[in-house]
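Hi R.,

Here's the chain you asked about this morning:
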Amino acid sequence: MRILIAPDKFKGALNAREVAESIAAGLREVLPDAEIDIAPMADGGEGTAEAISDGLGGSWLKCKAHDPLGREIEAHYAWIDQDKLAVMEMSEAAGMRRLRANEFDVDLASTFGVGEMILDAAERGARQIIIGLGGSATNDGGFGMARAVRFQFFADAKQLNGPTHELEKLTRVVAPSPAASRLPLPEGEDGGEGKALAKIIAAVDVRNPLLGVNGATRVFGPQKGATPNQIDELERALTRLANVVAEQFGFDYRDKPGAGAAGGIGFGLMSFCGATIRPGFDVVAESIGLEAKMKDVDLVITGEGSLDRQTLEGKTPAGVAQCARKLGKRVYAIVGRATDEAEPRKLFDGVYQNARPGISDEQNMKRAAEFLRENARELANSL
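And here is the predicted structure, written out as tokens:
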């Protein structure tokens, strides 16, 4: 029997490779002769760089950058040398994990460090840069990132350098000269004769626009500590940013699905770096050749921390299931916790969950590897 294990992380408990290896260990106890292949997955959130690097045999590079509050850090991103491909996560520089609980300040928090990572990769000669958008502490629409890649923002004669609410007064944006940039510029300049430009793919796991009731600020701002007054202020700031970009450069990405990802940096990457927004699962699946890995297996196992209605919105288990169904393969999910709703469950031939009666969420997370092995044994015995 040939089995492919392609899960996402169990956030706060195990990364995707650890999940896959735990499931494999349980299967082997019952099916010692099974041929098992592991393909750790991600969907644009945290773990994306690791999944692609793992699948393509990449290495890890480090560069100097700044965290959301401007402190110098050492940031890491993956590098696949044969393709001159850089794979990074915006959360590495501008993520919630960079801040202590008492440091959240969504107005001051900046994506400047993300721009520094992009520049570092471009200057190393990257032909393509994949950026996973998730886990952000920011809500600046890519304002900080754009400044790092040498855009300038002005309120009349005054240059704006943050906080984000200053964008309410924005009157013009000055792009870097084509000769100074290794990134596509809004005017469509080619970056100078003979200069290779880094193509940027923004991998997202949400479809929110930049503005409005479903936009970056109103949906995700409260999770980052934004007060009702700050939410109104930041919404006005990002509206002004979008208006000036549209007036000055002649395009408007505010309503593009994914523009609101990671505090609006999806909008910023499209507007200031010529990025393409793509579903993160598709980016990872294509990068590691997931479909090719599935073709000759008998069954597929996926998983994630939670199986619920959100799973249907581009999350890894749904993507793996759809790919497996397309190829006529049986597909199972082993998850931390599963909803009773039929729609997410019917994607799979069977769903197994780690949650146990009388066991707290904290204990469930601590014992995630153990419970994954138990569920894998149960699944193997049912085959």
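One quick note: The chain has two domains: 2-40+298-382, 48-281.

Cheers,
M.
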